[in-house]
Fold these 2 entries.
Entry 1:
Amino acid sequence: MQIMTMPSITIELTQKELDAVVEYASQCGETISGLARKALIREATLADGYGSDDPQYEYQMMIPSQASRTKENTIIQENYNRIRRILGWRQITL
């Protein structure tokens, strides 16, 4: 029997950074490790600018499907500003 282990990565975060990452992962319906894996691969391959060749690396903030475009924008803005508040950053308007 062969046992395969997955390598792991350890990162150091401040408590605010951890809280922000936990919040965003929750908004995307992802685990922290799953979100980090997807985000790093998307960044490393320019998948956001040129399109992903593999849907397993896609993630996005969960928005109710019946939301109007205006409501969707409001939800997205509120979600980003929630994370920005956690980090002590200024609020934004989309």
Note: The chain is about 55% helix and 0% strand.
Entry 2:
Amino acid sequence: MSARPRHVDEARPCLRFRDSRTNATSDTLAPLVVRGPDVDVDALGAHLLLDVPRGGRTPYDGIARAAAEGAWDEHEPTSGRRVRLEDAPSELRRVLVRSVTRAFGDARRVAVLAGGGIDSAALAALACEVGRERGASVFVVALDFPSEGDDRPHLRALEARLGCEVVRVSPARGAAHLGVLRAGIDALPPFWPFAAVNQAVYAAARANGAELVLTGAGGDHLFDGDPLTVATLLRRGRVLRALRLARRLEGFVRPRSAALTWGLRPLAARAAPVPLRRALAHRRLARRSLGPTWSGPRLQAVARALAEEQLERELYPRSPADVEGWLADPDREHFLWIVHLEQQAGGLPRQDPFFTRAVADFALRVPAEALLAGDRRRGILREAMRGAVPDSLLDRPDKARFAGAFEVFVRALDENPWGDLLEGRELARHDLVDGERFRREARAALASPETDPWFGHAWAALSVEAFLRARTKEAA
């Protein structure tokens, strides 16, 4: 079903919420929390870990996600037909064109969030193609920042190839939107670290007349491929192909012995009984340190519970035909939470043509080997877009580190932008952080995103601190 151009308030929601106390439902959380339900601290802990609580929980007791549906889930019935290896790139191209076409609806002015990455560049090329056919105007909005694996030269090549309008946005413009950290979005903490920067990007899209935003989110989730395909080939008796793939595969961190790590060890592990595999996995998990270094006991318990849940999922791999299982994947739910918050804050409807049921169905019907076309990570998308996107971009071996964008954003802030949130009083009171370590380490993490792996968690912690303070004040 096509959609007319619309404001976000009129857009079909990607999440819906239900209050078990009253059975009231809403597309947004704010109307359901005016009566002050208790806070679910463990659910907040999941957000602090840049994850989402399982089972549809929200940060409010008694209020849960009632649905995780969006317009991107509408599609023609799946065929169930396995895609032949040699047909996979061309078939993917057709699937993506259909998905982008559906995403346009009736919009006449469409912004594509893209840089010089493979996923977003592919989407920009497809959107320009669909836009020409439909008489719609398409332009690119790109974050402009230096980083390791710089996107900017590749964006210039894409701009020249497509001949499209490109609006470049410095992450420094996110400084004007820092207030979102304390104010929250739809009665929720904006837990992802680019919340303020993304608001600047959406503002640029609105200022240039966009009626709809498209993103390439989901491409890495579906098209990356897996080096453990080597083990799959060995299990099927294709020994020479498996060894050749182990020797040639590009784009993944290579172990000392690829054939051993990607092939023989996983094959042997799969042959072991599930109880033994579970025991060994739990033993390894028990030795690992989980979560930020400043985690308190409650946050450590949440991190371990999430890790154990993921462990169980990996012990029982889904069938390639299990599209519904993929739709319930925690990664996808995490993605939907972010889309919900971005739509509420950004003032524009958003569509993600790569992250649809139809595209997931395709990805689960192709041989695992097809995703690694040309013996390269994300090879199928590279080959599907050959000729439409510059080869220099499709063949790039690296990708931008978005920590660089966060660093530009932080440099544009006032001298002490975080204020007393860095004290972490509420976080410590709920045992989510070790107060002393948090005060000492979180500031350093936020100031050094290129070198400190916990900078995103530090932002999430400050957003949760602000959320808890607001709820405590309301309860007083």
Note: The mean pLDDT is 88.
